[in-house]
Amino acid sequence: MDFRLGGSRGCSEGGVTPMSDQSDSRGKSGVLSQEHALLGAALEPAANGYLEASYYGDGSQEPEAFDQGAALCDVGSLVSTCISGKEAAAFVSAVFTGPVPFAGQLVCSLALTGTGTVVSPALVAGIGPQDFCIWAPAETAEGLDSWLHGIAAIDQDGKAPYASVAFEPGAPFSTMLAMVGPQAPQVLGDYLARGVKLPAPGTLSNISLDAIDTVMLHPQIPGASQKDPHNHAYLMVIPNQKVTVLWRSFLSFNSVTPVGTSAFWGWIQEKCPGIVDLLDEPTKPQTPQDLHLKDWLRPTEDFIGARALADGQIP
Length: 315
Fold this sequence. Notes:
With 315 residues, the chain is an alpha+beta fold. The protein has a domain at 30-78 and 173-270: Gyrase A, domain 2 (2-Layer Sandwich), CATH 3.30.1360. It has helices at 33-38, 62-68, 88-95, 138-152, 184-189, 240-250, 261-271, 273-280, 306-311; strands spanning 41-45, 51-56, 70-74, 79-84, 106-112, 118-128, 131-136, 166-169, 174-180, 203-209, 212-218, 233-239, 256-258. The strands form 3 sheets. It has a 6-stranded mixed β-sheet with strand order 10-11-12-9-3-13. Strands 5-6-7-4-8 form a 5-stranded antiparallel β-sheet. Strand 6 and strand 7 form a beta hairpin. Helix 7 (261-271) packs across helix 8 (273-280). The radius of gyration is 19 Å and the shape is globular. Mean pLDDT is 88; it is low at 4-21. This is GCVT N-terminal domain-containing protein. It comes from Muricaecibacterium torontonense.
């Protein structure tokens, strides 16, 4: 698995989709479902049909891990899509509210309708000059996918500005883990070769963790102070055949605590409550102002929905 930062079509092997042939009446099992069950997790179906660890035990102690140690969470239900083509940069500029990321840059962004309501939040990564990869929550991923394909298919008077834009699903054989908390850099640093550093806020890079190739993302939350160690999260895209090894290895640290998705999104709500409000009611028309997400908008106002926001023409 290699994003090949700066290369052509480098995102074709860098996405995240938990895959398993097993399922039960509750949903489909992910790669780590058995590991979660052994730890006493409550497995509940995510919006994409996969079982996720919502919490362990009664979950009451999990929020402390974000403040005092390192919280480890399986966030494999995030849905990844790769975007490429000679008009890909122009397309990303039009459909997302954040700046167009250069290769190796990671941007928190929104996709808006023409009337200025939010379709979905997304992490948008630059892989090459015309190659990008996005991650979206399962709750809004299907709507985002339909919206992106609709914009790409626009044809006005025989002109199709995004005709070359192509979409590919993220790699179906990888899982994403998140590690959050003041001890996370120290834990992850133990896996790095001498001289290798973790990605800086707002970037991603190919990182080898004890000879296991991963892609590591370090989102920079708009409006959050990067001087506060509690605001840092590291997201790791790990090959399925290696993710169990790393999961168990991470948990060998006394400072690392497994947390469920309920606690993870609770942490997101503290940092950026509008995102969770959106996911709670994904079909409700809401603007960035409604969700207090104005920091997610670039100032140039040349993206879809910007004119409606500026004119106050919100339905």
